[in-house]
């Protein structure tokens, strides 16, 4: 198996002269959970529609294990399960009957229906009519659709949208299970950053159709600094020392520095050597939300 399951090369899509996905090159390693992040209207759904062949890029190409999507559509799509918008269910039919319909149309073994209902934890509700399902149950039924035929790749557009914390937790645990136990490669989009943070191994962030970050979650944390708040006996003198040393800081009432743990130790020592009593040096880890906002801010400054 190739190291990268999915690669896009500079894909672009415009609607009525407006570019909504711009030269986007994504690299999605095999077996990862790739959190695809971006604010509303960033181009996530459009990208995912291109990934599953629902729409074609105007430029660029999409490859699954080095095979071009357009040239091998039938073969490749068999191995991709997707959840882009909640499927149109037959509300008067049960969950089981809805899945059975698709199973028959797509000519899959009948055992697939119970298998996927078990995975998404709907087996107990399989004989309930879909119109009686909660939103969370409908979302999970949508995931069951994507799991029919046991694809290696799952492309899921905001599967936690509109769910309560319990529903979100269930989907998160399900995706972690599918990744770890069933070795699936999963692309999952969201604008709930903390959600993605708790399950993704890799991150792609887009803003206005442009890629602003891509890499492992680990790398993202390593390349970003933490915020340190310092409490001292003489804040005025500390501000003066920091200015003299050209060390940037922020905060009106408190002194906050965006620095690495090593730099924090050095600054602490330097302040003590200057006769300052340092009462407290508190580290607050940046959340993905902080990182995202600072990256989009940078992107805005550039554009
Ligand atoms: N079929 C279409 N025709 C015209 N414009 C479109 C079409 N599909 C998407 N757009 C526009 O493309 C932009 C990106 O939309 P897209 O749905 O891909 O973003 P998104 O990141 O998924 O946003 P959200 O989180 O709100 O779902 C939006 O400005 C949207 O209005």
TrEMBL record:
The keyword Membrane does not apply. Keywords: ATP-binding, Nucleotide-binding, Transport. InterPro entries: AAA+_ATPase (IPR003593), ABC_transporter-like_ATP-bd (IPR003439), P-loop_NTPase (IPR027417). Belongs to the ABC transporter superfamily. Residues 6-233 form the ABC transporter domain. One of its GO terms (molecular function) is ATP binding. This is ABC transporter ATP-binding protein. It comes from Gracilibacillus xinjiangensis. The lineage of its organism: Bacteria, Bacillati, Bacillota, Bacilli, Bacillales.
